[in-house]
Amino acid sequence: MKILVLNGPNLNLLGEREPNIYGDNSLSSINEALAKKAAEMGFETAFFQSNGEGAIIDVLHDARRDCAGVILNAGAYTHYSYAIRDAIAAIKIPVIEVHLSNVDSREEFRKTSVIAPVCKGSISGFGKFSYDLALIALAKLLRGE
Ligand code: DQA
């Protein structure tokens, strides 16, 4: 079973982007560690990052064909992209919403997630470990535990 790890806008700059909020780790180092953990748990992984809404939607559509589930950090699109929300609703595989920062403790606009209602669940505020927690949740879900 393959899990897609999908990151949205500005997450390519992790490590240099506001490290006080998002931490010192690059996206590639987070992805590498996640791939290793997923492999130990018996899952394949695919990784994709885009700063564009359309590319994220296309990758979500494609995932319905060959992925069992998705770990999604949609970045700022989380807060206003009805198009990404509709793409998640359109595919049948489970999507877990992830944020490095605790979005509820920040600016008002970050307290709204338009994707949360169509995601299986949301994990926010644990830095890079948010991805690990999402992986554990998705693995349990996919194994029917
Ligand atoms: C983020 C939180 C969003 O509000 C922000 O726009 C991001 C990153 C996070 O991982 O904490 O780009 O999704």
List keywords for this structure.
145 residues, alpha/beta, five-stranded parallel sheet, 5 helices, binds 1,3,4-trihydroxy-5-OXO-cyclohexanecarboxylic acid
Could you list the spans in which at least 5 consecutive residues all have pLDDT below 50?
Answer: none
Range of helix content: 25-40%
Strand order of the main beta sheet, please?
Answer: 2-1-3-4-5
Classify the beta-strand content into a percent band: 15-25%
Fold blueprint:
Blueprint lengths: L1 E6 L11 H4 L4 H14 L3 E6 L3 H14 L2 E5 L8 H9 L4 E5 L21 E4 L4 H14 L3
Parallel strand pairs: 1-2, 1-3, 3-4, 4-5
Helix pairs in contact: 3-4
The structure holds 1,3,4-trihydroxy-5-OXO-cyclohexanecarboxylic acid.
Descriptive overview:
This protein is an alpha/beta fold and 145 residues long. The protein is 38% helix and 18% strand. The protein contains five helices and five strands. The protein has a five-stranded parallel sheet, with helices on both faces. Strand 3 (69-73), helix 4 (82-90) and strand 4 (95-99) form a beta-alpha-beta unit. Helix 3 (53-66) runs parallel beside helix 4. The longest helix is centred in the first third of the chain and has 14 residues, at 27-40. The mean pLDDT is 98. Residues 10, 73, 75-76, 78, 99-101, 103, 110 line the site of 1,3,4-trihydroxy-5-OXO-cyclohexanecarboxylic acid. The site of 1,3,4-trihydroxy-5-OXO-cyclohexanecarboxylic acid (DQA) has 10 residues, from loops.
